[in-house]
């Protein structure tokens, strides 16, 4: 069997988040550079060794990063924005790492004040990368030696298996952003290529046999110019790097209409993600030229489930039949950066649950086992089939009542009783709110006191009763001061919630939580997504207690807070044995029941947050409408059980609506609150242009900063909003929840916000 086994990238943090801890200590000045580098060295060596032990024939290096792999490329290619010139001379002892962290996090030392580079989501993952900044006169040069050092170090451990990983030139440019007009970043390719060629030649001289170039954009929608850039780039590279084996990696999507282009590129091996796009295999097999090998991404690098060997083996065998075993490699679909490190640290999960899962380390084991099965070890296949069958049939996963109910959902369940205008009338009569009603998005500052309370409850230091009564106190005082401030629709403050998804997941059936299932989100920040393993149902009320408690303290309306079905789905590891749309519908029904329970308990205003609806948008445009249709439908199923005079709010905190405005309108929330302050209400133009019919609360101040905006400033934004939208439909609120703010600035800002609303109210003559 000449088929090679390889990996595309390994999680960097360490199973105990050692890298996170070391970086944060370094930033605090608690450890020095030597200790930071030592931690990095140990982690990389440990990860190389375990990949070697797992039988990988090619092992990635330079996949490690102190902050982000795209920023590493920016440093390697010397695309350092001008504003860091002063930092570069300021950092002592030629410390490249400090310049690097300055680009990632900003630099405020020795009288310098330089902002960080922008950060954005890595395709459809929850990983965030640092966006390269380009100018029309952009130049590139070899700046950093990190990749060469990494290759040397990897060779010490893995010998000839070491495979340096770089982001390919076309994707690197497309990941970036033009900082001035008059050019397109792809125009920079001719200036960039010589630097790439120099790097590849240097690696080759160092002894590299294989180099992995990640070109995820090759699996995305491409313009003709971008397609031509791929051809140009790889022709040039092939011409100047003869004998170097290039592995071109795509992931997250299928090659689709780029198949012929991909097959035409002069590279040694093409990697495709069969877990995300299995349908691309047939066409690719027909298109692949004789000299090119194919790397099959058969193990899911985006989820935590055990691989279905039978399925993978079918694809591997089919490929071997066409290409021969010397032209096939197997690997995970994408870098394992997006899954937790090692299942061995999950001592709280029961053996059955463990038998269904695989984290990064186990996924490499799966690659090895697939290889062993092809060599005749059928016992491994039998064991895998048993695990897969157990999950397929388990009564823990499959709840007939949930399935029946989900299947029985009709269009009517996604429809409110009356159209918006009728509801608006009923709600106006019920709540008698003033023009420009004021409210907030839900959470108030989560102080250390509140967080410690939760930690003490978890450790058993305090009783549930003590905890509850402390939370009650925080809630009462939040109600009191909202009244004093003069807000019109109050919130309970969300003091009882650790996280807006975890809180609900813990109370719903079908979820489990890991102890160490950390995944890097950005820099040193890691998240631990819940795992949705089975049919979702709601054993009992989740929020009613806190909302009714808060409502009992005041005669003003208190708005209840729920997290929407799409957001719960999007921020979890999701089961892979049924479509995402079906899982979302199950969650929607659970939320619908909670909405009805709140209504029955006398709550008149209920907010269903959907901040993640946009980030779930498929990467390929052709798939977007289908997604938006089921996502919007799930929201409507959650929201539509109520009477006309119950007011449903939703909240979204991102600022790109133009391309999806009709779907936002289709959600038919009575009120939507959105982030608009940083764009100076510009974003409202999309709503105005569309004649968005329902009520809307454009955020009048940015909650991401401690800055307290003045009354005039907010009143001015309200005037801008009133010029674009009917005043009857406008609400006044901040951009998002206030969880991460401190109390003093929160109070001051909301006080000013209420004043601004009153001023505009008077002006409108009411
Ligand atoms: N209700 C949530 C809060 O206020 C909404 C948070 C969000 O949109 N991300 O915290
Ligand atoms: Zn928000």
Number of helices: 28
Order of strands across the widest beta sheet? 1-14-13-12-11-10-8-2
The CATH topology of the largest domain comes to TIM Barrel
Largest beta-sheet characterization: 8 strands, parallel
Rg is 27 Å
Distance between the termini: 82 Å
Overall pLDDT: 96
- The number of strands is 24
What structural class results from the helix and strand content?
alpha/beta
Low-confidence stretches: none
Gross geometry: globular
Which architecture of the largest domain would the CATH scheme give at its second level? Answer: Alpha-Beta Barrel
Helix content: 40-55%
* CATH class type of the largest domain: Alpha Beta
Proportion of β residues?
A: 5-15%
Q: How many separate domains?
A: 2
Bound molecules: glutamine, zinc ion
How would you sum up this structure in a few lines?
The chain has 766 residues and is of the alpha/beta class. The longest helix is centred in the middle third of the chain and has 22 residues, at 464-485.
Explain the layout of strands and helices.
Blueprint (H helix, E strand, L loop, with lengths): L3 E2 L12 H11 L4 H21 L5 E3 L7 H8 L8 H6 L5 H10 L1 E3 L2 E3 L4 E3 L6 E3 L2 E2 L11 H13 L3 E6 L1 H7 L1 E2 L10 H18 L3 E5 L9 H17 L4 E5 L9 H6 L4 E5 L6 H8 L5 E7 L9 H15 L4 E5 L18 H6 L3 H15 L3 H16 L6 H8 L12 H12 L16 H12 L4 H22 L4 E2 L10 H4 L3 E4 L6 E4 L2 E3 L3 E7 L6 H8 L6 E6 L1 H6 L9 H21 L4 E5 L14 H16 L7 E6 L8 H6 L4 E4 L9 H6 L5 E4 L12 H14 L18 H21 L3
Parallel strand pairs: 1-14, 2-8, 7-9, 8-10, 10-11, 11-12, 12-13, 13-14, 15-20, 20-21, 21-22, 22-23, 23-24
Antiparallel strand pairs: 3-4, 5-6, 16-19, 17-18
This protein binds glutamine and zinc ion (ZN).
